[in-house]
Design brief:
This protein has 78 residues and is α+β, with helices and mostly antiparallel strands. It has one domain. 36% of the residues lie in helices and 10% in strands. It contains two helices and two strands; from the N terminus they run E-E-H-H. It has helices at 42-60, 67-75; strands at residues 10-13, 16-19. A two-stranded antiparallel sheet has the order 1-2. A hairpin with a 2-residue loop joins strand 1 (10-13) and strand 2. The longest helix is centred in the middle third of the chain and has 19 residues, at 42-60.
Amino acid sequence: MTSVLSPLRARVLNGRLVLDEPSDLPDGTEVESRAADDDLDDADRARLHAAIARGIDESRRGESIPAAELLASLRAGR
């Protein structure tokens, strides 16, 4: 099932968006949809997703710093 925070994949069929997977969203839930518009080819997208996964893994291992600390460092020009 899909949670509210997960992206929903759909396709257009007869002018309507049709979900490709089940969703546990309650009937009547309004969902905002935007068409993906990027210049990534499949290889670039795979590299992007791999980099995101590496970042998530690093964060889970504690190999990251809090965003406030990073922003303070950037503002200080360090």
